[in-house]
Amino acid sequence: MRSYLEGIVEELKRLKREGVQTVSVSEAALTKLRERAGILAGAEGAVSTKPGTRGASAGAAPAAGDTPAPAPEKLPELPQENSGSASPGPAKRRPHRQPAVAPIPSIPPEIELPEGEKRLRWEALREQVLNCPVCREHVRAGCKVVFGVGNLDATLFFVGEAPGAEEEKKGEPFVGPAGALLDRMIAAMGSSREEVYIGNIMNWRPETPSMSGNRPPTPEEMAFCLPYLRAQIEIVQPRILVALGATAVNGLLGPDPKRRMGKIRGQWHEFSGIPMMITYHPSYVLRYASNRVKRTVWEDLLLVMERAGIEISEKQRRFFLPSTR
Ligand code: URA
To answer: Residue 32's domain spans which residues?
Structure first.
C-alpha cells in the first residue's frame, strides 16, 4: 500500500514540476484511493472543484501560448496500481520493499577522452559510461546502462530525463511511448531520429521502492551523471539543445524550486555556450493530449526550427491551430 501511495505522490510531484496546477480526480478514483489507503468510504477528500470530481493542487498551470482558450481539459485518472507493489489492504500490510540503493558518490566522474575525431572520442565516452561502476550498480538486474544515440554532427540535441522500462531493457534512450512521440515531433520538424542526437540526464532508470514505476532523479543522481551528458554535448557540438521537461532543465541548469515550466518554456537559455530551448517532455504531451498542449510544444519547436535555419512551411506553422475553414 505504501508504495502505491508513494507512486501517486511521486506522480503529483512530477506533474507539479511540469507546471500542472490542478488535477481532476474522479469519484471512482477517489474511492479506489481510499480503499488502498484504508480510509472508510465517505471520508472527506480534497476540495471539490466541480460535480463528480475533486481537485488536487500540483503547482502552476501550463502556459496557454497564443491559442484560444480551450474547452476544459480532460485530465487523467490517478496512476494505476502496479501488480506486486500495492498492498491488499490495511489488515494485511506487506513489509515495505525498500531496494538497497547504493549511495551516489559526491565526487562526479572524471572523463578521460582520447584526442582525435568525434567518433573515436564518442566511442571512448560510451565505453566509459557503459562500464561506469556507479551506473552499473544502480541498474536493475537484467537491464542496461543507457547512453545517448544519434548523429554526431547533429544540429539538434534533445535532452530527456531518464530511461524508463523500455529504455533500460534496450539500452537506448526514448524507445518507449514517449520516444515514439518524440520521433513524431522530430519528423514534424522535417527531420528524423537519425539526423538528431538524443541523450538523457540520467544513464540509468532511478530505482523506486517497489522497483516498478518511475521517479524523477535526485539532485545527487543528476549531478553525478551530468559530466557524461556534458561530454556528449561537447563532442557533438550541436547548434541547439532542446531540454525536454523540468528534470532536463534542473539537470542542466541546476535545481531551482522556484522554477516553473509554464514560465520558462518557449524561452532561450544557454548551456555550455549553446542555445537551449525549453519545452515540455513528450510524456507530458501524452498525458495531456489536448491540442492546446500540442500547440504549446509545437510553438517551442517552431522557435527551434527558426533558429536552426530550418525552412518552415505554412502548413507547419499552422499545426494544431483550429482550422479556419
Ligand atoms: N523519458 C526520458 O526522459 N528519457 C527516455 O529515454 C525515455 C523516456
So the answer is: 2-43+58-85
